[in-house]
Automatic annotation (TrEMBL):
Signal peptide: none annotated. InterPro entries: CruF-like (IPR007354). It comes from the Bacteria. Keywords: Membrane, Transmembrane, Transmembrane helix. The keyword Cell division does not apply. The chain crosses the membrane at residues 16-36, 42-61, 68-92, 112-130, 137-154, 174-190, 202-220. This is Putative membrane protein. Pfam families: Caroten_synth. Coiled coil: none annotated.
C-alpha cells in the first residue's frame, strides 16, 4: 500500500489539540442538554448524530488503514448488531428488552447505530489496552471487562433516556455476562487483525464517554 503523506509534527499536534477540545465540548454540551428537562428532547434527537460524529473524529486519527481494518470494522459491527437482533427477538443473550426511539432508524427492530456503538467501544478499549500485553486472550479479557464496566455505568442512563427498556424494569445479570462474551469475541478479532492500532485520541474519547454517562447518572437522579 502507498504511504499517506503526513503533516509536520506541529500541525499534527495542533490538530490533535483542537480535536480534543471538540470532543470535550461535544460531551459537555451533551451532558448539560440531557440534564435540563427543557432541552432534553432536542438533545435526545441529536444522540445518533453525536455517536456518528464521535466516530468520524476518532477515525480521523486512525493510522492503520490496511486491508485488515475494514474486515475487523465490518465484523465488529455485524457481530454486535447481530447479537442485539438475536437478543431482541428471542430474549437470549441479554434478556428481555426493547429499543426506544432515541437511537434513530431501526433494522429488524434494532437501531442501526448500535452496530456503530459496538465497533466504537471495542476500538476505543482495544486501542487503550493494545500495548499492555502481547497475549491476545489477556488483552481481550481486559477490553471486554472494561466494556462491561462501561455497560454497567451506561444502563441506568440508557433506560432513563429511552435508549432501551427492560422487562419489569429489571436489568438481568445475564446481560452483563453476555455483553462480556460478545465483547471478548470482537476483541479477539481486533487483536488478530493486522493493522496499526495507535490512535492518540482514543484514550481521550474513552474517558469523555465514561465521564458522560457517569455524570448523567447523578444529574438524572439515578
Amino acid at each position: 500500500m502507498h504511504k499517506i503523506a503526513q503533516a509536520p509534527p506541529e500541525a499534527q499536534n495542533k490538530r490533535l489539540t483542537i480535536s480534543k477540545i471538540v470532543v470535550v465540548a461535544l460531551y459537555v454540551v451533551g451532558v448539560i442538554g440531557l440534564s435540563l428537562p427543557e432541552y432534553r428532547d432536542l438533545f435526545l434527537q441529536l444522540t445518533p448524530a453525536q455517536l456518528l460524529l464521535s466516530l468520524v473524529i476518532l477515525l480521523g486519527f486512525h493510522k492503520g488503514w490496511s486491508d485488515a481494518f475494514p474486515i475487523f470494522a465490518t465484523a465488529a459491527f455485524w457481530i454486535g448488531f447481530g447479537a442485539e437482533v438475536l437478543g431482541i427477538h428471542t430474549g437470549y443473550l441479554f434478556g428481555d428488552y426493547v429499543y426506544g426511539a432515541t437511537l434513530g432508524p431501526k433494522l429488524w427492530e434494532v437501531p442501526i447505530v448500535i452496530g456503530v456503538n459496538w465497533f466504537l467501544l471495542v476500538y476505543l478499549t482495544g486501542t487503550v489496552f493494545y500495548k499492555v500485553t502481547d497475549n491476545d486472550y489477556y488483552a481481550a479479557l481486559l477490553g471486554a471487562t472494561a466494556m462491561t464496566v462501561i455497560d454497567y455505568i451506561m444502563e441506568p442512563v440508557a433506560v432513563a433516556l429511552d435508549f432501551w427498556y427492560w422487562k419489569f424494569d429489571i436489568i438481568p445479570a445475564g446481560n452483563y455476562f453476555s455483553w462480556f462474551g460478545v465483547a471478548f469475541l470482537i476483541h479477539l478479532i481486533y487483536r488478530k487483525a493486522n493493522f496499526d492500532r495507535e490512535n492518540p485520541l482514543a484514550i481521550w474519547m474513552l474517558m469523555a464517554m465514561i465521564l458522560f454517562f457517569t455524570i448523567l447518572n447523578f444529574t438524572l437522579g439515578l
